[in-house]
Amino acid sequence: MLDLKITNAKIIDGTGAPAFDGAIGIKDGMIVEVSRGEVDKVSDAQKVINAKGELVTPGFVDIHTHYDGQVCWDKQLTPSCWHGVTTTVMGNCGVGFAPVQAGDEKRLIELMESVEDIPGSALNEGIPWGWETYGEYLDAIDTPYVMDVGSQVPHVAVRRYVMGDRCYDDSSDADIDAMATLTREALEAGALGFSTSRFYGHLDKEGKLVPGTNAAAKEMLAIGNAFKGLDHGTIEIISDYLEDEDELAWIEEIMRNTGRTVTTLTTPGAKRKIWKLAESLQKEGLNLRPQVGARPASILMSLEGTINPLAIFPSYKAIRGLSLDEQIAHLQDPEFRDKIKTEQPVHHRNPDAKRFTTSYTEMYPLDDSLSYEPTANDSIQAIADGTGQHHLDVLMDALAEQRPIIFFFGGYKGTLDPYFDAIANDQSVFGLSDGGAHCGVLCDASVPTYMMSYVARDREKTLPLELVVNRMTENTASVYGLDDRGVIAPGYLADLNIIDFKAISLEPPEMVYDLPSNGKRLIQRANGYIATIKRGEVTFEHGEATGALPGKLLRGSAIAD
Description:
Helices cover 30% and strands 21% of the residues. It is built from 18 helices and 24 strands.
């Protein structure tokens, strides 16, 4: 007898194939039967869920998160678990918490706080430490979870471990050999890959580029060679230099030397060399996967957020320590508003931060549809021009309504078409949710729900639902060699979502203070998930946790379960 069967389902199997009506039989955490056309015809089971014609998809696989600290205190990995995610990969962008020299833990926390906007107080209180090697870190977090968790060894931590305070400098041959050895040891201990950052925006608290940003090609090649002979391991790269031939040359050399998959964070647009290289290598059986997100790099600005566009005004600075309700009362006071409009702002020295807080044509109040796709007429300045108001009145109205202000700091052309076209590209892989990170400025861990609701249903120009599901299941899983999930077929893990497609939607972002040490973060909840199932166990019903923790730490295939 089966453990569970799901009947009367509209199945989207994750492969991109057309949806079909059917039923699913589950035994010992695995899918063992799938019927097509006969919606009840699978073997008898101890438990039956009647899907009543609603969608059943594979559980979503999110390959770009930063839960490296949060796994220590949150076994549900909120908010990803609210959005149908059943597998997550952390340790991206070169930052993480192992390996670490005793006494150097604070430096890794500061780097994570600076790069990923995770409150340092939460990390200091929530991480128990006690490990040194990457393998010891994996042992420490090898606990039950609501979803499966995979991890990558981060370049920043490896460099810091080997070079100490020299980690910002050029590496010696001895340093490079040591880093390659540590990477190999981490992979053999079960790391799913290695990640590095070569991005100008990743700075430490002192404003210096994080360790490894300018690492020489020979360092990267040596670390890449640590993958030789292993049957698992992916390299994740965030780089500003994907149009440079030298950068592409060492990436290609690593792939030819090892045969391993590389995923590089990128965006649509004029920069095409990485896409052309991916297409060329694919013909030779090599897997280079440009990683794209659902929208441009953005932030949400709010009264409680890390970035508040009113904070440049002295009168607002004077009340910023008041409660949220008291701040809102001031913003609704005509006398206070008039005072703000006459003040000389104190601008940020950082040119990006100055632009975030002064470019009113690029500030968009987040609309009720949560489309994240405004038009030019939706900006603060355009609203002011169209209504005859002062732009600061429009801004203060939006903030007083607790309506986040979205700012696309990489630029925005008035449409997200290029991003969705890139997602549909066969070379690309969908990522960049940053779950667990950027706590005070965004909550893109909600993108699976956004893709299912806005991109596949509500947008004027939608992507096919089967394609959207594929891009968040089989396609993402394949990049990390997780070939046992992401498809609804016999022999695959019983990781599933039952979804009311008419009702699936996002709740507005809200700031909560639920991290250790009362740390703050933006979260978004979802509607429309009837159930999420992990290894055949129901983990969420109608958005509420059942208490089941069937997920586990994933280790690379060099480690036997």
